[in-house]
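User: I'm writing a tutorial on reading structure tokens. Could you give me a worked example: one chain, its sequence, then its tokens, then a sentence or two explaining what the tokens reveal?
Assistant: Sure. Here is the example chain.
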Amino acid sequence: MRHNRERLAWSVLITACGLFCALAVGIPLGLRWYLLNSMLEGAANVDTTNGTLVVELPDQLGRVGVTDSLDGIGEGSTVTTDRSSEGLIEFPDPGGEPALGALQIYGNTQVGLQLMQSPRFGISPHTHRIVLELAAGRIRARVPVDVVRPVSLTVKTPQGTAIFEQPGSYLVEVIQNETSVVVREGKAAVTAQEKWVYLDEEENPRTVIPDGQGPLDGLPAERNLVADGDFEGGLFPDWTQRRQKEVAEQPDAQVTITTVSGGRAAQFSRTGVGLNWALVGIRQEINRDVRELSSLRLHLAVQVNSQDLFNCGALGTECPVMVKILYEDGGGGSYEWLKGFYANLDPSGRTPTRCVTCSPPTTEEHDHVESGGLRTYDSPNLIEVFTLQSGAAPAVIRAIEIYASGHSFDSLVSEVELLAQE
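And here are its predicted structure tokens:
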């Protein structure tokens, strides 16, 4: 009996000692694991830049039509656009730092927010993680450079997966049973069917994933003929400025570089009451032979915050954002193509919506954009447009100009690309 009591006492003592040691080791290790691996669930903010976005909320909370903005949508939500709508999704840092990234959504697109997580504590070695599911359509993703902790952005499509873990600008498109991934800036890893392809902006910027196949490598890339169209280096030396005004005593219009949606933009501004006409713009010399190109497309993002004129003025020449491309045909004839963007729509319908004094008259309509919203524009094939406009195929692109014209205005331009395909 006495022997059993001693054995029990030793058992209790050993068990207590073991439990103490386990707690002494386990509690710090558990706390360390929690500090390193605990994650916060993020939320996204949706802004409409044109038309109406449809946001389907998780857990059967219903569908919401968004014509302005909607903040705080969580994991499991889906954002859908139709043919006439576009939008912007921003991913704020739960810790209050600058935004973790932005996603431009084009028309006829459906994108799901599968995962948005950030480390709870600063000691954690993990990245911010954003996982998206692109079912159809086209998105442009931007991973910013000014975040303290790296961001890992993954885009899943029906054909494969693209992973972006460096600051940059990326285009993903799902159309006709294939996925296209293009690196404008940065680096990407693309995988499907156990095959990996690594992309960068210089050597291998584009891949396509056909349905049921791995990503293709060594594809010819679109070349951007515009240098520093994201204005990361400012205006100089790639861009030159010009200013004009009708009354010398009145203030000049200004062009400055600012930050919008995680990227850089050129801002054109002139504010005041009773102002006469003025213009401010930037120009870049291109001087590139385009006779061997199959396509040439202009891409840019515009935002019009304010303007005082209806449309683009009485002659269609005073838009708060105007883009002019100067080119020549094979015989040396000089031409220009003009595209404008405005927010202040004339309710009477009497103000023209295109340039009526251009020579030759441009067939391009100016575009109406919602005030204050960032709107992307992708042109048709300009080789065909220029040929139709001037009656001869273009031979040389001389220059591109971007400017604001009017009396009082505030507008921005970013992502300027003139994409050439052999």
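What the tokens reveal: The longest strand covers residues 128-143. The CA atoms of residues 252 and 340 lie 21 Å apart.
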